[in-house]
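The pair is set out directly below:
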Amino acid sequence: MAKSKKAASAKASPKKGAKAKSSPGKTPVSRSASPAAPAGNLSTEALVAVKTAVSQNVSIDFTFTGGIGQATAILFRNGVLINMQSISETGSIVFSDVQSGDVVTINGVCTGTATVKLSTPTIPANPKNFPNGLMMANFLIK
């Protein structure tokens, strides 16, 4: 039935000074503004995509045969997306400043067959051949 006015208003607004409830494993969100980090703390050592003495250019060659295809190659370093390029015909994508330990991810589709070849040693070894349908592969740069 109907609740009393006192019971309804008690649930609608928390008492002053009451602590916010939080679920186990969840951090309560603070509503107060926090000061921004000083801009002077950012240095080139803090950036992920920095050219080093061991950086190299890596060419990714796509060959689509017996049909059409489209693919996207993505370069990750320490889990951060560094570069992403797409191709819709036989050709090459070049990533600069690639380092050992980077990951190249290939996603795409082809109606015939496709071959993907990287210009540097990888784990797993390349080139990789794909039948018609989806193209999905990850390559760790040695």
